[in-house]
Amino acid sequence: MENINDSGNIFISLFNQRPRDNVTPRENFLTESFVYVLKKNVDFCKIWLVSILKMPVRHESLVIDTRVADRYQDDGGAGSIVYPDVEIVGTLENGEAFRILIENKWDSGYNYNQIKNYLSLFRSQCKNYMVFMCQNFKDSLRAANDHSDVAGIEFRSILWEDVYLSMNGCIDKSGLLDELMVFMEENKLSSGNILTEDGVGNYIRGVKFFDDMKKFVDKLLNDFDWMFVKKGFSAKITNRFGRVAIEFWPNNTKNNVFVSVGLLYNNKDHKIPFAKPSQESIDFILRVEANPNLGDARIRSLDILSSRVESIRKDGSIAYLLNDKNNRNPHTLFIAQKNFFDLAKKGVTQRDQIVSIFEQCNKWVSLLFDDTDLLSELLALSLSR
User: Fold this and answer.
1) Residue 353 belongs to what domain range?
2) Is the domain of 25 the same as that of 159?
3) Does 205 reside within a domain?
4) Which one of 113, 118, 179, 200 has the largest count of C-beta atoms within 10 Å of its C-beta?
């Protein structure tokens, strides 16, 4: 095991993780890169360890290594040799010893039994920490829920975007830290940019705006479980009609019916006022739309929506139905909207903003679709000629 002050060479480390038959190198590459920067950049090492340990360490005491062999014991007393991705041992500033084991996921998903086996490796009386690091938000939540209450062990489930934020907080970007940050940005491991009210004008006038919104909505789709997907709807992200949105539609139908969720940046096509009238605004919307050529076949869906619109408005949202004065788009059976920045203003990170937006959307979905009436009617409508 190398002491933190010992020389390390990233090329030697990464050469051992080169592509070979029956070996997936991505996770190992990321692990070795992370450890290299952790060893080489003192500023980052201190910031990141404090985020895990909640107290400073004696930096000179640290020993950091990858894939250290250890044997776990299962419930029957047997066991196997395992290789946690990273082990860090050292001394806290108060003189107390600690040990951290880290499991990194990128290609592969969360494995309950793997983490359970790693937790059995902690046998010392020092302060023990198990860290699960991944890209997938749902995996991170599952791990946190499964292992939050383990006697004698502090469990941390963190995203790679959290690691990126720690990196971004460093004044000193040496030790290839800046290069690793670029790599993480290119591979969707970074935190992403928050959307700010002060920057809306510049966003709307530039390509970067659409790129940031696309990444935002992509996480909104992939980081949460959507009822529509569970009920057999297809989903895709589009930038059309003045919105960047997730479009849900019933599988194997004629694309007559859509439920869209996303960010409205131009209201010319939707033909509704912004929640805060402005030419440079963003609204979060949920829209139920159906082809006007379906005619009277849409009446039943509209009746159900009409019975629920007031509950949406009581929530503090703006909501319009087909033929309402402020809804002049004949495709829109229903639309709910709120100013994006009113919802996300408390967000310090992009993750904060995404969670706030999903929570609002979940309220709308619950008020509209808690029973099966509306969903069943939309499915039937989608099959209409």
Assistant:
1) 200-382
2) yes
3) yes
4) 118
**pLDDT digit string (tens) for the chain, length 385 residues:** 555 555 455 655 555 555 555 555 788 889 989 999 999 999 999 999 999 999 999 999 999 998 877 766 565 556 678 888 999 999 999 999 999 999 999 988 999 999 998 998 887 789 999 999 999 999 999 999 999 878 889 999 999 999 999 999 999 998 889 989 988 988 889 988 888 776 666 555 566 778 888 999 999 999 999 999 988 899 999 999 999 999 999 987 777 899 999 999 999 999 999 999 866 789 999 999 999 999 999 999 999 999 999 999 998 999 999 999 999 999 999 999 999 999 987 667 899 999 999 999 999 999 999 888 999 999 999 887 6
Same domain, 161 and 217: no
Rg value, the chain, Cα: 25
Sign of the four-CA dihedral 139, 145, 146, 148:
positive
Number of domains in the chain: 2
- Pure H helices in the chain: 10-15, 26-40, 42-53, 112-119, 137-147, 160-168, 177-186, 200-204, 207-222, 227-230, 299-306, 309-314, 340-344, 350-369, 373-382
Q: Is 216 helix (H, G, I), strand (E, B) or coil?
A: helix
The pTM is what?
Answer: 0.83
Domain identity same for 163 and 229: no
Last residue of a domain, which of 154, 186, 218? 186
Do both 233 and 366 map to the same domain? yes
